[in-house]
Amino acid sequence: MNWTLEVIVVPVSDVDRAKAFYADQVGFVVDSDVHVSDTVRFVQLTPRGSGCSIVLSEGMPLMAPGSLKGLQLVVRDVHAARAELVDRGVKVSNVQVFDGGIPRPARAEDSLDYAGFLFFDDPDGNSWAIQQISSRE
Q1: In a domain, 63, yes or no
Q2: What is residue 118's predicted lDDT score, i.e. its pLDDT?
Q3: pLDDT at residue number 60
Q4: How far apart are CA 29 and CA 22, in angstroms?
Q5: For residues 61 and 74, is the Cβ–Cβ distance under 8 A?
Q6: Total count of domains within the chain
Q7: Secondary structure of 57-122 in the HEC alphabet?
Q8: CA 73 vs CA 47, 59, 77: distances in Å
Q9: Structural domain of residue 97, as residue ranges?
Q10: Phi, psi at 105, each rounded to 5°
């Protein structure tokens, strides 16, 4: 039996602001924006190429806004991902690698496959990492 992770709830304080950030700046696709009632709303967005979506909601407080840490996206080219996010106005870290468990700026001679990372936060402080994996065995 397959067990697939397909939705992660991201706690936010303002669904419209978060929807604009994830769709317009990060580039996620808006799958649905459903008003269940006058007080309950769900917005589902999916990163391009991903089988897992995020859900932003109002009227269903499950976690404090900004409390989700360590979400991770994977891309084939971390430098291209950084350039795209910067062009879209996202405040994103420089490319980093972990050296002895401590992040440091990437150098030209560094192999970035599995080791290259970027980091950014959404407007509420939920934190994301982007890892480069260009090939899988």
Answers
A1: no
A2: 96
A3: 76
A4: 8
A5: no
A6: 2
A7: EECCCCCCCCCCCCEEEEECCHHHHHHHHHHCCCCECCCEEEECCEEEECCCCCCCCCCCEEEEEC
A8: 8, 27, 12
A9: 71-132
A10: -60, 140
Answer whether 95's CB lies under 8 Å from 112's CB. Answer: yes
**CATH number (domain holding residue 17):** 3.10.180.10
Give residue 72's pLDDT: 96
Residue 52's SS3 state is coil
Which pLDDT score, from 0 to 100, does residue 137 have? 66
CA dist list (Å): 9 to 12, 54, 80, 91, 133: 9, 6, 27, 22, 25
- Asked whether residue 92 falls in the same domain as residue 128, the answer is yes
Contact present, 65 and 121 (Cβ < 8 Å):
no
**Quick one: tokens of 84?**
């795209």
Asked whether residue 76 is domain-assigned, the answer is yes
For residue 9, the model assigns a pLDDT of 94
How many other C-beta atoms are found inside a 10 Å radius of the C-beta of residue 13? 13
Average pLDDT over residues 93-104: 91
Rg (CA), the chain: 16
Q: Each residue of 47-89: pLDDT tens digit?
A: 999 999 999 988 877 789 999 999 999 999 999 999 999 999 9
